[in-house]
Amino acid sequence: MRLVNKASIVTGAASGIGKAIAQAFAREGAAVVILDTNTAKGEAVAAELKAQGARACFVPCDVGDSRQVNAAFGEAIRFLGRLDILVNNTGVIRFSKIVEMPEEDWDFILRTNLKSVFLCSQQGARQMIKQGGGGRIIAISSIHAVLSEPNCGHYTATKGGIEAFCRTLATELAPHKITVNYIRPGATYTELTTPMYTPAVKRALFERVPLKEIADAAWIAAGAVFLASDESRYMTGQDLTIDGGYVMDGSLPSAEYCKE
């Protein structure tokens, strides 16, 4: 119960990592507002949380649209009464080589993944400053902010942009005791990614991931709980990498240097 009496907004929480974060926050005692474009799934998650005794509601919102964000945050704060925690989780992906990438794909991915973090963080920070008492802003980045991801140049650009933006936002909000941090998940099972993890892909991943597992979304959510809690009070502008050791490992898969 590390988040008792805390009020939170989680974007993209109708499924995947966002849903796992909303569930974890509710278990820890927080009130949760779910923002998403998928009304059926978003309402189902809110209903699930309420059935478990949490204060929760769903607000439909395209987080890449400033008018919708402004309206949704107004509705969410009326429901919550205040805002202590914001999680910028919404993210989408498309696939194409950069030399073949349609401009509309680039614009769509940057709008959904990166512009949304600006719009939601701006609204969230304004509310936290207004009410006083500090706050927590968390963004979901990716290990592909620092590792290339062929056929996903727009996606990697957004994740690198999220991290650079969060560092600057952390500096600006520090005087208000609002911390800003981001999580870098590695391979994680979600509704979006599970079909990608074919036997061949898993074999290749386990050659690179020292712990030889694909994360459950709840493992990423555990990191978000830490960053949302008072336990992270002296941490801001930082990454929390949850990737089974993928990024740190410099070994050569299936090979070793000559011992002679």
In short:
The protein is of the alpha/beta class and 260 residues long.
List keywords for this structure.
single chain; 260 residues; alpha/beta; Rossmann fold; seven-stranded parallel β-sheet; two-stranded parallel ribbon; 9 strands; globular
How would you sum up this structure, described in words?
The chain starts with 6 loop residues before the first strand and ends in an 18-residue tail after the last strand. α4 (103-131) runs parallel beside α5. The protein has a single domain, classed as 3-Layer(aba) Sandwich (Rossmann fold). It is built from 7 helices and 9 strands. β2, α2 and β3 (56-60) form a beta-alpha-beta unit. The radius of gyration is 18 Å and the shape is globular. It is an alpha/beta fold. The protein has helices at residues 16-27, 39-51, 66-80, 103-131, 153-173, 199-208, 217-228; strands at residues 7-11, 31-36, 56-60, 85-88, 135-140, 178-185, 188-189, 215-216, 239-242. It has a 7-stranded parallel beta sheet, with helices on both faces. A two-stranded parallel ribbon has the order 7-8.
Query: CATH first level: which class?
Result: Alpha Beta
- Please, what is the oligomeric state? single chain
Rg:
18 Å
Helix share, percent: 40-55%
How many individual β-strands? Answer: 9
Q: How many independent structural domains?
A: 1
